[in-house]
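INTERNAL TRANSFER SHEET
From: sequence group
To: structure group
Subject: DUF2142 domain-containing protein

Please process the attached sequence and return the structure record in the designated field. Keep the field labels unchanged so the import script can parse them.
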Amino acid sequence: MVVTHQENTASPRKRHRIVAVFFFISLIGAGFSWIAASPIGGSPDDDFHMGSIWCPRPAEESCETAVIDGVLQVKVPEPVALATDCHAHKPDQAAVCPEPLSDAKEAFSTRFDEGSYPTLYYRFHHLLIQESVDASILVMRAANFLIAVTLFAAIGILLEKNLRYPYLLAMAASWAPMGIYFLTSINPSSWAIVGTFAYATAMWGAFSARDEKRRWALTALALLGALMSFGSRGDAAFYVFVVTAALFFAFAKKRQHLPQWILAGALSLVGIYLMLNGGQAGNVVEARSVSNNPIAIALRTLVDLPRFFGGLVGYEFGPGWFDIPLNGTVVVLAVMVTGSLLLAGIREGSWRKWMSALMVFGAMAGIPVLIIAAGTYPHLGPYQPRYILPLLAVLMFILFASDEGMRLRLSWPQKILLLMSLWVVLSFTLHTILWRYVKGLGGVPPINLDALVSWWWNIPVSPMTTWVIGTVSMGVALVTGSYLARSGHSPQDRSEVSHDADERSEAERQERALNER
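Return from structure group:
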């Protein structure tokens, strides 16, 4: 029996498509479980963000307002104004209110945006408001998650095959568990994380693309990512400039990339402008006189940075209103995964890799130090790790994707340990979040979350079933994602990458020759 080359390649492609379908289905299952795990007002400052969504700026035009005790307040549905008070900073209590809150009744709230945040995020989510506040929150969380999945899938499909492994590995190394938690929330950090990483990876892919159509498609996705960053937070807008600076060092300059560089420069200027003219930057300027000894404060902050970076994976800054502790198994495994992959990423590299990574890491470390030294916050703590979380995956991607993205290889024991650790981190965190809100923390953690249910959504799926769906889905997503990341590396791909490396080396030699002249 003669087997043609076409038949040989058809079977792996069919298997690849089947695995991709399972990967997508598992992501939807995992996303549902995280979306449903928290009640209304379950993530930090949700009362503020809900008020801003129901009454986007200018509030006087979108909601009924009143000045009470000299303070402008907006009238919103009771759950928007009061639901957070029922459970925030009360970890031993379930997310049930002493008296039921009604969607039909309204209450005044002081918690809404008056200029500190961009209005795009809030105006978009204002369009998703339903008659029920419960339904509105679930729809908004689902929209954020589906935007992330769709955008990341599009970028992953368009990236050159040698970049897909670093692409998925960077997300896995950076977002377990806090990144996943914010991606499925209504916090603007969701768009900040998605937009910053999408801009960085899509623009990187555009500079690496071997054909014009792919380059322009990735450029369009990078623009979309930048717009999400602009519309979410002032600091996320500035991160577009940080990423552009990293890209400047990462790639040799070629004539065919001129449109991308012009776009990146223009977006960077917009990001700087939005950051400087936002309310968050104004707070820094107003606080400059608070600090008496900025050098001493900066040194103390530098010493405190490792603890602060631990908050990126939940250390002292867990889910909820930092009232869901993850300082045991979850944090140890998460730090091990992120730290070990970070060490693997810095094993070797070119000067371009180190300068590019330095731009991102310098922002991650320098921004907190400068803000604390300026007196905006008394110490690292009020300034939360989630503010720099959007840059973590970008840093990891640079470390993994630089120098053609083919150097980092994990053995099977390493991959098994990595996947198992990530699975335990995500499953344990999801169970803890559900336990905290369904029953309230305290005593021995229950295995069966359905045993004592004090709070839950009005949906036909129980808390325990939600956790099982999430745990199984996350396991399937990790396994299938690992397969998809590795399946693109054929010998042909490697030879193409080697050819690209030769082209890049030649471009760098020409660049050095021009500089010498």
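Handover comment: The chain has a mean pLDDT of 89. DSSP finds 21 helices and three strands in the chain.
Transfer complete.
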